[in-house]
Automatic annotation (TrEMBL):
UniProt organism field: Ancylomarina euxinus
Listed transmembrane segments: 9-29, 49-69, 81-98
The name this protein goes by in its record: Uncharacterized protein
Source species, domain of life: Bacteria
Keyword annotations from UniProtKB, A to Z: Membrane, Transmembrane, Transmembrane helix
Lineage, uppermost ranks: Bacteria, Pseudomonadati, Bacteroidota, Bacteroidia, Marinilabiliales
Length: 99
């Protein structure tokens, strides 16, 4: 049976959403009782750790999705996750170089 998730567009969408969700989950687990979301974002911007945090969220979150899709033999969805990871990698590179 053909899966509806085995689509490059769905994989790319998940590849762009999963890092945002993993940052949100990290906030909820570690900082929810200490600060609000806006204070968390302000702290990230003041400390200038947004590139590092974004890189960790992208690589760990998307690697899990990528290997899950490979294991389930949903190669088109894995291709979409890989595309999103490459786009995020260029964004992180731009932030780190400072262009």
């Amino acid at each position: 049976m053909k899966s509806l998730i085995n689509n490059s567009y769905v994989g790319a969408f998940l590849g762009f959403v999963v890092p945002i969700l993993s940052i949100l989950i990290a906030y909820l687990v570690n900082f929810r009782e200490e600060m609000t979301v806006s204070q968390f974002i302000d702290g990230v911007l003041v400390l200038k750790i947004y590139a590092k945090m974004m890189a960790v969220a992208v690589y760990f979150g998307n690697v899990v999705c990528f290997f899950l899709f490979i294991k389930l033999d949903w190669l088109k969805a894995a291709r979409g996750v890989l595309l999103a990871t490459i786009v995020y990698s260029f964004i992180v590179l731009i932030f780190r170089v400072g262009l």
